[in-house]
Amino acid sequence: MLQSATPDYLVQRDEPVDFPPAFPVYHFFYGTLTAPAQVQRILDLPEEPQLRQAEVFGYAIAKWGDYPALINGKQGQTVMGAAYLVKSEEEAQKLSYYETNAYEVADCWIYFKDEKEPKETGGKVFMYAGDAQALLEQRFDRKLWSRQMERKLG
């Protein structure tokens, strides 16, 4: 049966993976947070953190203005980036504040590209919180606008 499977069969996960929100937990970064100096500044760390080269499957990058936005992609699509081991709720909150409510935290499966352990792990990623189709079509995103206004008014 495995002989007839696609080459990426073992790395594809069709069902959502529910990870506990315990710390420490790896976060996958794909944009400005792939720069260690940026993570150091946001988290107010005494030195640049060690980020691990990593990738996630089943996602794609779209542009939200000048910024990359992670959206659901096709099976087998890969997004390259870096992962950081978030050590506390405080660090997670600082990252969420930096990312704004244009992004929401989602569970993901992270595959590391280095020789260290673990080779893969469940983690977190910041995904675009609006309408991915509107983003791809470069039209006004009412879902994201409502989400942003809700925070300002609520």
From TrEMBL:
Keywords: Transferase. One of its GO terms (molecular function) is transferase activity. Residues 28-145 form the Gamma-glutamylcyclotransferase AIG2-like domain. Coiled coil: none annotated. Pfam families: GGACT (PF06094). CDD domains: GGCT_like. Belongs to the gamma-glutamylcyclotransferase family. This is Putative gamma-glutamylcyclotransferase. It comes from Aspergillus ibericus CBS 121593.
